[in-house]
């Protein structure tokens, strides 16, 4: 009976699958443009194609009719409402209590090319031999003792293997210099790094066979600027002769987990531009021995910068072992979305534990350590294996050479070529002249012996990294950067890194989140300053006012670029440096933030003047003041108070996004009678609310005035603020305090209303025109969400949890996350104070707990800002011991252990929850977003700072907000994390519905209902059994190694990470000259294009801008499978086409030259009217001359 029941259920399920598949096939044929185009394969092909073309034409005509009707209705509405300004109608309450806010009524459209939707489907994606998600699924991660190579296995070889073709050995001396870790950048330079360079000049010249590599341009530039021309020329000769190779050539060796691709690329450009100007050399090979895990984004950027090869080191030891066993340590690293293998990058993975000498010559560190001649007896460093090195002499050279060759041969067995790479160095090595002699002289004796004995079948020499790669390419008969025959192709990333046992380096994804957030703020300011500065300089040049504009601001830009670059270092943004070093980083970041605000304000001053002839720049008399200030490098920002009176105070608002933007602008004003006008004098509605000095007390320091604005793309809008008795459009927020029995002093600020509920436990809600949110009456936390167009609400519960650390042996520290088990619910000592604020433009709920303040806000606006939840959690755990605070989102989404996280804000990487791995191995970096999804919904957590994230149960997202740890985790730092700051973590939560969900949900429910009735009638099976059984067939399959956000999600992330800047115009004795809105773009950019930067290029002879700027564009891949929503701006795609001619209003594009990504290689110049075309996900650089 049981078997019969199972067979019937399976048979019914197969029938349902077949029917549903047929339904989908018919639907796809009917609606998919690609099927229409291929309809000619069927009989009567000509008629079929013609019929499909007519259907497409009808569809386009219908769409155009709708757009025209929409425009017509909007024009009539604008006419009736007196011009369509935001202030034409008052907000009003609906019968259900929600606010209705008629905004400007401006018609917008969404027009996505069907061809642009095909890319995300992945149908043309190139297959790879190894996908890292599959590798993780396959491996046991069992950590079996491998003998002398503890994390590997015994390596055997036949001594005659190299008789026909000798082994080539390249020993590559190097010194890894951290721009800050135990010491500050400047202290490292003065104590050690400058001595490395000075000795390098002398020691490399002594023997032309000596080679060396260097990567960190930040140190190299500092040394260069301190020496005379003679030493500069000597160093230049070493580089141009090939004795010294610059590898990667970035400002630093960046972290690859927490960094955003904007900064990742910017520090690479800064290093490469410095090299081009001062040395005239172009790096060929990438070198990344110390980042704690590796991202394919770096491979992509290096490939686009015209590097041909790269090397990585810190990869999980089980993966290294697997790759070693399959001889896959060298591979072509391909991007997951690649359709034509154009992103393939040749990559070498170092096989052993570390990049130090004991772990680079071969599998036995006890032997390799004997060939680190800095450890000769009598020195400060020795070998932990108790067998010291011996200086090479005639009497021992034969024995020593054969011992070393054995290691070289064993290492070579892990690779597919008879060429072996042997790095020779460690942190801050070669800082003393003695070590140069110890290493070079002893190794040269070994090489001379090996090379003079043909029976050893080896050719050993010093080499650079590119020397090694060139030999591999030559031996395999391929060009540089090409795929050698039979070498594997890989896609995916190398997170999470573990160096031994269950020591997963997932703690640093969150460590010191205050500075992770400050870095993102600084990056946004840098990009905004670059764009406005480039436009202002071009406009001043066109107006013949170049001498009057402060081009000296370029030095502030350069300093900021370099400080942002320094902070991308893999011990800076990671939060893994000593406390004194972190303070030094903080001072650098704050100094540059202040400088960038000056650059932005100076550019804005020039650009908004109606009459440029009135422009005067006085360093001591600024025209604008910043929107907010920070008292110290460890302070949260505070708004600048705008003093109001009856004369207008002008406000300039900068939108750093390349699309028009509808948003709320909030400023701190001195008067409750605030009136806000547009540039042309139209009054705008204002929601007035309080600043709060505590959970129950309104601050006397001013009022928060929030008003809606439609801001031009990359532009500057001008508003007027008054203290006016005629402020009928200024509406007060309604504030309610839910005290839960706490006896707290309250303070109200007249005229703002304040209500008190002492012990209300009822659940409650806030709502906007798009969303309704329900909250717990006891905790004040979000419980559920309902989109206004949906019939049902979705569970969306926010909870807070605490992780501890292990009580014995190894504990969590700056790098490692070693929890003492699953997280425990956060247990407050007292119930929270909950503040509910409602108004026409926004509503919010703020919960005050002992260790955090949690705010959820919704905006009553059309478009991007009105479709997501704005979440800010301000954390302060300075009184905790060995605790980590986490925020968890709990939903009904059936994600089934699949999580999607971004890599560097650039691409999305699917993840799976692996039960075979410890909890800490299932946390991943989240630089900007993470999402879960099922057949109906996708829930995305957007983040304004890099943090660690996991999905440990279906339907859940968990993010670590801060970590306070009292001990070191034995990775060299020597400190815990005890310098926590009061930190504000900013998020957006976006709930999207699948476009196919509505379409197929009814059909699927009918099939399920019929099948359920059949089974229930025959066997009495429960409804839940049927639904669970069927959903295993109909669920969304997330096994693809590729996924993309929607366009709405892309824009939500952009709005979160690039906030508007509201800059008050300072009062002037002579009055403020006439101002006007600045709209730099002459048209609308395709909404899948991101203007990553418009970066002024430096003159070669001085620290001033040249006539050219670098335009860096990124075309984003996006998922069309989610419901299209009104973004409140005209959004269209163009299959990657963009015309640069006339792109900028009021500026001519004189020259356009395609460049490599870091501007070191020039392509064929284009006509200034040329149309460029980018593939999805492509980033490209162009050198422009504007004027």
Would you write up a description of this structure?
- The chain is about 30% helix and about 25% strand.
- It is α+β, with helices and mostly antiparallel strands and about 1200 residues long.
- β33 and β34 form a beta hairpin.
- α19 (about 995-1020) crosses α20.
- The termini are far apart.
- Keywords: Disulfide bond, Glycoprotein, Glycosidase, Golgi apparatus, Hydrolase, Membrane, Metal-binding, Signal-anchor, Transmembrane, Transmembrane helix, Zinc.
- Its main location: Golgi.
- It comes from Acipenser oxyrinchus oxyrinchus.
- GO terms for molecular function: carbohydrate binding; mannosyl-oligosaccharide 1,3-1,6-alpha-mannosidase activity; metal ion binding.
Oligomer category: single chain
Q: Specify Rg, calculated over alpha carbons.
A: 32 Å
Mean pLDDT: 90
With strands numbered from the N-terminus, the spatial order across the biggest sheet is: 27-26-33-34-35-36-45-42-41-38-39
Q: Span from first to last CA? A: 84 Å
Largest sheet: 11 strands, mixed
Structural class category: alpha+beta
Low-pLDDT regions: 1-5, 22-45, 65-88, 1000-1038
- The fraction of residues in strands falls at 15-25%
**Morphology call:** globular
Number of strands: 53
Percent of residues in helices comes to 25-40%
**How many separate helices?**
21
Membrane topology: Single-pass type II membrane protein
InterPro entries: Gal_mutarotase_sf_dom, Glyco_hydro/deAcase_b/a-brl, Glyco_hydro_38_C, Glyco_hydro_38_cen, Glyco_hydro_38_cen_sf, Glyco_hydro_38_N, Glyco_hydro_38_N_sf, Glyco_hydro_57/38_cen_sf
Enzyme class: hydrolase
Domain Glycoside hydrolase family 38 central: 503-589
């Amino acid at each position: 009976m049981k078997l019969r029941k199972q067979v019937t259920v399976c048979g019914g399920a197969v029938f349902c699958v077949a029917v549903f598949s047929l339904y989908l096939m018919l639907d796809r044929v009917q609606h998919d443009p690609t099927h229409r185009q291929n309809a000619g394969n069927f009989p009567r092909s000509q008629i079929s194609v013609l019929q499909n073309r007519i259907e497409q034409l009808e569809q386009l005509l219908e769409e155009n009719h709708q757009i025209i009707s929409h425009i017509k209705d909007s024009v009539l509405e604008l006419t009736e409402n007196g011009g369509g300004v935001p202030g034409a109608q008052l907000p009003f309450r609906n019968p259900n209590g929600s606010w209705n806010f008629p905004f400007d009524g401006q018609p917008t459209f969404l027009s996505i090319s069907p061809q642009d939707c095909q890319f995300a489907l992945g149908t043309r994606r190139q297959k790879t031999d190894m996908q890292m998600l599959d590798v993780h699924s396959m491996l046991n991660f069992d950590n079996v003792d491998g003998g002398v190579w503890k994390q590997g296995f015994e390596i055997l070889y036949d001594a005659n293997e190299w008789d026909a073709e000798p082994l080539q050995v390249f020993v590559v001396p190097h010194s890894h210099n951290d721009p800050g870790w135990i010491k500050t950048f400047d202290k490292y330079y003065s104590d050690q790094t400058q001595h490395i360079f000075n000795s390098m000049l002398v020691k490399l010249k002594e023997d032309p066979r000596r080679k060396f590599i260097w990567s960190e341009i930040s140190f190299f530039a500092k040394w260069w600027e301190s020496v005379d021309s003679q030493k500069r020329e000597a160093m230049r000769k070493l580089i141009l002769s090939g004795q010294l190779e610059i590898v990667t050539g970035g400002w630093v060796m960046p972290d690859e987990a927490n960094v955003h691709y904007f900064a990742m690329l910017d520090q690479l450009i800064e290093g490469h531009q410095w090299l081009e100007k001062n040395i005239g050399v172009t790096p060929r090979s990438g070198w990344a021995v110390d980042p704690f895990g590796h991202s394919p984004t770096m491979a992509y950027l290096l490939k686009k910068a015209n590097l041909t090869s790269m090397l990585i080191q810190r990869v999980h030891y089980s993966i290294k072992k697997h790759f070693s066993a399959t001889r896959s340590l060298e591979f072509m690293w391909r991007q997951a979305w690649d359709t034509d293998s154009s992103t393939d990058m040749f990559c070498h993975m170092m096989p052993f534990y570390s990049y130090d000498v004991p772990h680079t010559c071969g599998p036995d560190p006890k032997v390799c350590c004997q060939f680190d001649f800095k450890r000769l007896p009598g020195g400060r460093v020795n070998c932990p294996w108790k067998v010291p090195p011996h200086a090479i002499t005639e009497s021992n050279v034969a024995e020593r050479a054969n011992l070393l060759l054995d290691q070289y041969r064993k290492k070579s067995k892990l690779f597919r070529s008879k060429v072996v790479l042997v790095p020779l160095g460690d942190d801050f090595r070669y800082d003393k002249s003695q070590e140069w002699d110890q290493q070079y002289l002893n190794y040269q004796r070994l090489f001379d012996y090996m090379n003079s004995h043909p029976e050893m079948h080896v050719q050993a020499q010093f080499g650079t990294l590119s020397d090694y790669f060139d030999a591999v390419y030559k031996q395999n008969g391929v060009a540089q950067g090409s795929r050698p025959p039979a070498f594997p192709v890989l896609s995916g990333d190398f997170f999470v890194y573990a160096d031994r046992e269950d020591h997963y380096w997932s703690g640093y994804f969150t460590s010191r989140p205050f500075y992770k957030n400050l870095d993102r703020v600084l990056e946004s300011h840098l990009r905004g300053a670059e764009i406005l500065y480039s436009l202002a300089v071009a406009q001043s040049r066109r107006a013949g006012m170049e001498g009057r504009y402060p081009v000296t601001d370029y030095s502030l830009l350069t300093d900021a670029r370099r400080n942002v670059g320094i902070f991308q270092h893999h011990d800076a943004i990671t939060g893994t440096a000593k406390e004194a070093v972190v303070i030094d980083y903080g001072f650098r970041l704050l100094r540059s933030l202040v400088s960038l605000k000056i650059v932005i304000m100076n550019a804005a001053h020039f650009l908004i003047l109606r009459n440029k002839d009135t422009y005067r720049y006085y360093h001591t008399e600024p025209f604008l003041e910043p929107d907010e200030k920070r008292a110290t490098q460890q302070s949260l920002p505070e708004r600048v108070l705008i003093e109001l009176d009856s004369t207008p105070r002008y406000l300039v608002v900068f939108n750093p996004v390349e699309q028009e933007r509808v948003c709320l602008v909030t400023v701190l004003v001195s008067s409750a009678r605030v009136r806000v006008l547009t540039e042309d004098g139209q009054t705008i509605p204002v929601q007035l609310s309080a600043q709060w000095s505590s959970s129950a007390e309104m601050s006397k320091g001013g009022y928060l005035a929030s008003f809606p604005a439609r801001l031009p793309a990359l532009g500057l809008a001008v508003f007027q603020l008054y203290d006016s008795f005629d402020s009928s459009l200024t509406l007060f927020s309604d504030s309610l305090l839910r005290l839960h029995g706490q006896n707290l002093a309250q303070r109200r600020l007249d005229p703002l209303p304040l209500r008190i509920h002492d012990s209300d436990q009822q659940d409650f809600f806030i709502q906007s025109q798009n969303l309704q949110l329900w909250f717990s009456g006891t905790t004040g936390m979000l419980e559920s969400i309902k989109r206004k167009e949906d019939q049902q609400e979705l569970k969306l519960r926010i909870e807070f949890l605490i992780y501890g650390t292990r009580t014995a042996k190894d504990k969590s520290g700056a790098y490692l996350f070693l929890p003492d088990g699953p997280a425990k619910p956060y247990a407050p000592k007292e119930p929270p104070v909950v503040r509910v604020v409602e108004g026409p433009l926004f509503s919010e709920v703020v919960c005050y707990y002992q260790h955090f303040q949690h705010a959820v806000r919704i905006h009553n606006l059309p478009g991007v800002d009105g479709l997501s939840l704005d979440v800010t959690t301000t954390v302060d755990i300075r009184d905790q011991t060995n605790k980590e605070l986490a925020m968890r989102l709990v939903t009904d989404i059936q994600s089934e252990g699949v999580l999607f996280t971004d890599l560097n804000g650039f691409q999305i990487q699917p993840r799976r929850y692996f039960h075979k791995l410890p909890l800490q191995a299932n946390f991943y970096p989240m630089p900007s977003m993470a999402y879960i999804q099922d057949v109906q919904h996708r829930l995305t957590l957007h983040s304004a700072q890099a943090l660690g994230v996991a999905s440990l149960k279906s339907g859940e997202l968990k993010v670590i907000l801060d970590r306070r740890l009292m001990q070191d985790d034995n990775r060299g730092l020597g400190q815990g994390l005890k310098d926590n700051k009061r930190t504000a973590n900013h998020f957006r939560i976006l709930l999207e519905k699948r476009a196919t969900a509505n379409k197929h949900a009814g059909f699927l429910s009918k099939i399920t209902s019929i099948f359920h009735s059949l089974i229930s009638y025959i066997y009495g099976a429960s409804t839940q059994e049927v639904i669970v059984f069927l959903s295993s067939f109909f669920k969304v399959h997330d096994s693809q190694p590729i996924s993309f956000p929607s366009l709405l999600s892309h824009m939500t992330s952009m709005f979160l990470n690039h906030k508007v800047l509201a800059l008050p115009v300072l009062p002037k004795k002579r009055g403020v000259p006439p101002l006007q809105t600045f709209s730099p773009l002459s048209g609308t950019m395709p909404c899948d294009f991101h203007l990553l930067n418009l970066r002024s290029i430096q003159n070669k002879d001085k620290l001033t801008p040249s006539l050219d700027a670098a335009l860096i564009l990124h075309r984003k891949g996006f998922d069309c499978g989610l419901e299209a929503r009104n973004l409140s701006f005209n959004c269209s795609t163009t299959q990657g086409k963009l015309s640069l001619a006339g792109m900028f209003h009021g500026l001519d594009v004189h020259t356009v030259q395609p460049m490599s990504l870091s501007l070191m290689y020039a392509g064929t110049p284009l006509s200034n009217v040329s149309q460029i075309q980018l593939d999805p996900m492509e980033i490209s650089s162009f050198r422009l001359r504007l004027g």
